[in-house]
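Appendix B, Record 12. Input sequence as logged:
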Amino acid sequence: MVDRRGWHPLHVAREDPTGTWSLVDAFDRVYGTIELRRVSAAEVRYRVSFRGEVIGWSTTLRVACERVHTEFLRNHGPNGGPIASWGSNNRTRATE
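Logged structural output:
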């Protein structure tokens, strides 16, 4: 069962100014922003940006925070597959 009381990216979102949230890392550096935008009289959307580049739009603040944080985590690892060639499992070859 999932513990719903656990940590969520929404916990690192700081609102300032009103309607704009900044997500910060452990060193207090902003890595993403979310801006509240009105698209019609009754609808609002959240503009999601990662390091200054718009990566999408969301209908809830929770989903917007998840999108920014997922992109933040994705940028920590290598892009693409592993660089190492694992070779074959040929044990009959002599080693020197």
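The beta strands are 13-15, 20-24, 30-38, 44-50, 53-58.
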